[in-house]
Amino acid sequence: MIRYAIHVIAALVLGTIALISGCDGGNNNNNSNTPPANTMTIEVQLDAMQVVAGSSSGASASAELELDLDTDTLQGNVELQGLTATAVQLRRGLAGESGPVAIELEASNDTQWMLPDDTVLDEAQLAALDAGGLYLLVVTEGLPDGALRGQIVIGDVRVRFLQLSGSQEVPVVNTTATGRAAITLNAEATELSIHVNTVGLQDATASHIHRALAGINGPVVIELTQDVDNAEHWFAANQVLAAEELADLDNGYYYVNVHSPEHPGGELRGQLPGENVEILFTNLSPADVVPPATSGASGLLALTLQVSESSASFHLNNSGADDATGAAIRQAPLAQNGPIAIALEQDVQNFSHWFAVDTALTEGQSRALRNQGLYAEVYTPAFPQGAMRGQIMPDNSQMGSGRFLVNSTVPSNGATVDSFPTTIEINFNAAPLEAEAGQFQLLASGGDSSFGDGNELEISDVNLLVEGNSVELDFTGVAAMDDTYQLTVLGSGDMPLTDEQGRVLDGDKDGTGGGDAIVTFTLATPPEPEPEPEPEPEPEPEPEPEPEPEPEPEPEPEPEP
What is the rounded CA–CA span in Å between residue 318 and residue 223? Predict the structure, then answer.
């Protein structure tokens, strides 16, 4: 599985430049590390890629130069690491161009070379310096054309390097030829110069700069001239760019193409790196599908990423899968399957081309990209699970660290509840990505408290609420019986739950994403209490007998007369 990117190598040549004004503001600090007033300090990094003829050296070098702006005196030294030089030279020439020696440096020791004392730049050399047209070259016995080179860049000049290959052509070209290009842009004057050097393509018929993003073809905008003394050198000098053309360059819309009789549409191509974009290429292979496929197809994804706006354009070209039924950017780490993040559209005029243009990336998708958690995949009738796949790996990325886990659930694993929960809460250690109801399964055992025997009943009437690191499953209105219940959160299969970094759920907590999280709980409703017997009615009290009337007193006898 081969993946590569176009690098912006300005850091190799755009050293730290310090311009100190003629007035020191009254500062009497005589620190010896501070350059004298009205000088320019230039730092340069030298490497093998900048050598026009190519270099196999794995060594490196750095230089620190100081230009007196009053006297035009240039001082400085070159420090070597990992090689012994036979010469170190200051030469004239733009990036990608070989030029004459201007000044020979002198060896102080095996690892340090110095500019001669009282080296004064003439007007032509000063003009070349302002235009980015001076460079340092380190020569060794085994590499007489140069082992290391470093372009000296100051002011508004920008220098970029890029590799040319047949794999960047649309469609891909199988060729043994190689190439590299260097562009020099004066941002203030909006002037562009380009030098293209090929190896193994002496019969090239033309070379141009075209306008199109990586992965698609576009029209010619600048025609290059072939060097009469070197058939493998093509160039264009001082091309003035309009404002919209400069914007196109910064946004990755230009590429250089070298044409040949065998491949008139282009044998070598390289996308010009822009100031605002990162350009990535990813090869797709059946071997990277999970599980591996045997389709025999192949493909190349070109991604142009607008870094500041977090938007991206995808162009995927495949070979051997013209009957593809779909293509997508999915979210999961290498060797794991994940959900669709971005669906690609098929080109109606070219069935092998799938694309998505100016697609805004969510914050989670951007994080997943930097954690190598996005991949491209193409599907065919014979391989509906994937005919080819490629993991997108930006240069400044690394595989996501840590694991995506279930921290807790309510009810907890093994709990017994006395009423069926209207909601089940699942708490993760990171925010899940686009959780769907199908990634959560609740089964009743069917009365035997066991699972996997075919006696289970699935409870599917569920609503999903995702908030931060938590997911709530709403079972309001579900009629449930006493039983053992099993909740499964899918970390396996075709649609595992992933987090926003692209990590697949490590549900079984074995240290590797891809396992299911399983929680069981028991519903045991307490029996209803027996009704208390009604108390027997108290007997009615017997009525008290009415008291007998007292007898009337007998009348007293009348007295006798």
Answer: 29
Q: Which amino acid is at 249?
A: L
Show the domain range for 315.
287-391
CB 364 within 8 A of CB 433: yes
Going from the C-alpha of 462 to that of each of 123, 398, 472, 518, 524, the distances in angstroms are 80, 37, 10, 18, 21
d(CA 58, CA 239): 34
Give how far Cα 190 sits from Cα of 15, 158, 187, 297, Å: 21, 11, 5, 43
CATH number at residue 494: 2.60.40.1220
Is there a contact between 312 and 302 (Cβ–Cβ < 8 Å)?
no
Tokens 């007035």 -> residue: 23
Do residue 225 and residue 368 come from a single domain?
A: no
Host H or E run for residue 369: helix 363-370
Q: Which residue in 126, 147, 130, 151 sits closest to 138, CA to CA?
A: 147
**In this predicted model, which residue has the larger pLDDT, 178 or 16?**
178
Q: To 10 degrees, the CA torsion angle through 127, 132, 134, 139?
A: -170
* One domain for residues 491 and 516: yes
Residue 341 lies in a domain: yes
Q: Find tokens 């030098």 and name the residue.
A: 195
Please give the backbone phi and psi of residue 492, each rounded to the nearest 5 degrees, phi first: -120, 180
Res 558: pLDDT = 72
99 and 208 share a domain? no
Query: In this structure, is residue 416 part of a structural domain?
Result: yes
**Of 176, 118, 182, 177, residue with least CA distance to 153:** 182
- Alpha carbon of residue 460 to chain centroid: 36
Cβ atoms within 10 Å, residue 124:
11
The reply to whether 381 falls in a domain is: yes
Which pLDDT belongs to residue 370?
A: 84
C-alpha–C-alpha distance, residues 251 and 187, integer Å: 15
CA distance 396 to 375: 16
Q: How many alpha carbons lie under 13 Å from residue 106 in its C-beta half-sphere?
A: 7
- Using alpha carbons, select from 274, 231, 227 the residue that is nearest to residue 93: 227
Number of domain units in the chain: 4
Together in a domain, 340 and 377: yes
pLDDT digits (tens, 9 = 90+) for 174-184: 999 999 999 99
pLDDT single digits (tens) 100-152: 999 999 999 999 999 999 899 999 999 999 999 999 999 999 999 999 999 99
Same domain, 480 and 423: yes
Instruction: Classify residue 540: in a domain, yes or no.
Output: no
Shared domain check, 193 and 171: yes
